[in-house]
Each structure stands twice: as C-alpha cells, then as structure tokens.
Automatic annotation (TrEMBL):
Similarity annotation: Belongs to the ATP-dependent AMP-binding enzyme family.
Keyword Signal belongs to the record: no
Molecular function terms, GO-annotated: medium-chain fatty acid-CoA ligase activity
Superkingdom: Bacteria
Protein name stated in the entry: Acyl--CoA ligase
GO terms for biological process, alphabetical: fatty acid metabolic process
UniProt xrefs under InterPro entries: AMP-bd_C, AMP-bd_C_sf, AMP-binding_CS, AMP-dep_synth/lig_dom
Amino acid sequence: MLEEKWGPWQARTTAQLLDTVAAEFPDLPYVLTDERTYTYRELAEFSLDLAAGLHAAGVRSGDHVAVDMANFVEAVALKFAVARLGAVSVSVNFMLRHQELGYVLRQSRSTLLITMDTFRGLDYLAELDQLIPGWEEAGGGQALPDLREVIVFATAGGRPPRGASLDDLLQRGADVPRALVVDLTGAADPQAVSDLLYTSGTTGKAKGVLLTHDAVLRTAYSSAYHRALPAGFRIMYAMPLYHVFGYVEATITTLFVSGSIVPKTIFDGAEMLSAVARHGVDEIMCVPAMTSVLLEKARAGTYDLSPMTSIFSSGTPHPEGMFAAMDEVFGVERIYTAYGQTETTASTMCTLPGDGLDRLASTNGTRKPGGCAGDEALSGSLAVYKVVDIATGEELPAGQIGALLVKGPIVTQGYFDKPAETADLFTADGWMRTGDLGRLDDEGYLSLTGRQKESYRFGGELVIPSDVEDVLIQHDGVLEVHVVGIPHERWGDVGCAWVVANPAAPPAAEDLIAFCAERVARYKVPANVLFIEASELPRTVTGRVQKFLLVERAVRTLAGADPVSV
C-alpha cells in the first residue's frame, strides 16, 4: 500500500509533504494533546499563518531560524512554517544555559530566535538578559549581530512578561498574502538544507549537522516502510524535536501513513502510560532511560495498554533483561531497537518485525529497507556500513570488531561553517566515520561494542567531556579535571569528574556540582565528583590521560552508589 501510494519516489520538502497529506485527509487528526486535537488541515493552516508572520519579520530563503522550545504544538507547526519559506530550522536544545545558547546562535548565524518564557523552572528571559541585555528592542545587539529579533512563546498561555509574542508574530503576518506563502512553499527546494541540528560530537565545540528535506523524508519513509506501519498509526514520544529520533521517525514518519503524533513536553512515565488508552496510542517511542521508568510504573500501577502494539526503544545500550521485561510487561506484538545518529538523519539500522528477544538484546538491527525511497545502488537501502581496522583502514570480515563507517544518500553533507571538522568526518573515498566500534555478522546485523570517542550519553543526551571540564577548571579549587562517562543501568551513562584539588582551597564535591549546574545544561552536570592526586592520573608516555582507566577506577570506586535522583 505504501509503495503504491508514494512510489516512484518524488522529492518534496517537509512542508510540501504536509500539504499533500492535508489535501487528501484534511479532517484526520495529526497532533494530539490533552488540550485539543489538531487535524491535518488545522496544522497546515497554522503553519501557513506562522510562515506569513516569519515572512513579515524578514525571514527569507536560506535564513536560519532558531527555535528553543519543548514539544508544544507550536514548535511542530514552526518546523513546517520555516520550511515553507525555504529557511533553515535551527532546533535548539532547550536545556542549554545562556553561554551555551549564545554559542549556538552565534555559530549558526541565526537571524531570528523563538524561545519560551519559562519551562521546567528555567527563566529563559533571564538567560537572555545575561546573554544579550536589551534583547527586547535590540535583538542580538553587538554580541550576536546576525540575530535581528527575539520572539517569546508564553508556555502558560497569554502574553509573555516581556518581548514580542508569538501572537504578535501572527498578527504581523495578517497582511502577508497567503497566496505568496503558498507559492514560496511550492518553490522551496527539496535538496536544500532543512535543518541544522547541533551535536557535541567527539571533540571541541558543538557542531551543526546539515540535513536536507529529501534526506529527512527518505529516512522517515524508510521507518514507516520497513516496519509496515498501517494507516492512522499513532506514535507518542517525549524526545524533543532537536533529536532526530522524535523529529524524523515520529513527527515526519506518521505523515506517510496519515497517522498521528502525541508529543509530550516532559517525560512522565505514569502520565504516558495513562495516555495510551486516552489517545489510542499504537507505539511509544523512547530511549532506554525512559523505558526503564515506564517498566517501573507499569509494574506498580494498573494501566490500559490494549491499544499499544509496539514499542521503539533506542539511543543508548539497554540493561540486561530489559527487552524480556518489555515483552512481559507491555505484551506488545513488536519491539524495535536501532542504530543511527544525527549525521545519518536518524536510524539506518533497525531490528525487523519478527526479530526475537535474543536478536534485540545482542544487536542494533540490520540495514533498513528503503522501499521506493531507497537507493538502487545500495540494494534499496539508504545507507551501507562497513567495519575497518582502526590502524590500517582495511575492511574487516564479518564478526570482527573495528571502526564503523557509513555512506548513503541520507548521510549529512557535513557541519555548518566547520570545514576542518567536516573534512575529518569523511575518509578520502567518501565514507563517514561514525566514531563507533562494532561488528557485522554474516546476516548483516550490527552489534556495537564501544566508542572511539570520549563522549557519552546521559539518558539519550550526548555529553562532550570538554564542555564540562572547561567549566570546572574555572573554579578556584580545581587544578586539573577529567570528566568521563560511566555505565548506569537507567541513564546509559552518568558523568564522573576526576578532580585534582587546589590544596590551598580544596572544594567539596557538592560545591563543584552546584558550580557546574549554574553554568551548563542539567544533563551535563556530573553525577559524581572524585578527587585524585595528579601523580595518580594514568598517562601515556606522551602525557595524555588515559580516560578509559579512569572509567574503570570510577566504576570500582562507585560500585553500588547511585547519587542520581530521578
């Protein structure tokens, strides 16, 4: 059915796809919230009105529009609104503090920022005051010269306490002819960049990954095709739109089956389980840290999960026994896990319907068939992987562990305005370095075995240790600091900071954690601080600290400890 409807493949933008589905199924539900349901027609019209407002604010094709918002329906509509103008959506991690936000806005050259007033206890306007005083009138000022204006979304409704509101933006768009926006939507290029998504990568500052409309749509279609999603399929998720998992494989994938999304602004396990029956949810999409909570809540309470037919859990390693627990507790027909990254637009390897618990527990899936969106040169897939020797670069046979490389039409063209990092991303013959270690078996299933990089994931969020080290070294009580990720059953990894203290002013671990919490996003704050003498640090002959040995020592030292509060 999908192949008959969408084949042969026609390149579109995300907004063009929305309009195509809205024209055929105007009254079907697309976005479901507890407050109201938005049909395809309503969401398309909302995005059209927002696009008119953005146009009135001076947004043009190729401009970068930063959106610093949780999973409100307005954020979903803004994705399509930006696409209508041929502009680029810069999805900002809403947990970033002002210094981190400033870097993203500056590096992305964003011309407009749409942010929240408050969310989960964070005052976003106070953060802006520290970053760009006078932003209400001067935009980015001298600190961020590309930023012309800031628009504020009031999360509790009504007007924000300061600044131009989203309603003001809609009002400004009232004089923009809708026919103009429709023409701009149709003229937008599917091969142009649609999204700039920031990933911390392996070293240095965050990098903006360039994704095109066509890559996003091909990946989304592949997700629907290989899992044989039926018409009207409903996916609930709490992963934010700055992650490709929730954005591409839920928000966009459902369009191909005229389905619905149930986006949650915050993750609440009990509430999500209750929402399954309330919204007729077919699938919960989550990272393992969320899956763990869902299992706990489901065991402790009574929930009607009868509408749910599948669960898609991916993003970090799963603790032993978790897939069996999912099968027992949720009783769904299908369980999926996958492998991918921002640079590959989302998952490129995924388990298949019918894969058993052993395969789920031991692999990250196999190449996703792309259907009509696939590449004939890749046997109908969208990506192909190979494993190479780390030292020689020679391809290794099945079963051997090495560095994982990928190529295909959904692989990013590189990082925005970072030519050196982009060059390092690819081999001379065009394969992308994933930074991961793994092996492929005789049937093409991938098993990840480790990382070449020092970054780690806390609950699905990527943490680059140098981001935290650069902050902690500013503390008067710190002479040297090395941050590592250590395995954690619920969160995937948690941060541990090894600190060489200043003997003249030795700090307490709690003080360093508080110091860090004031300056970086919450998920970057180390769960543990351990002190060490400089002479005890394990080093190579060239003086480089061997962080893998610090990981081993931290695991031994913290055995049985769990200072992370849920």
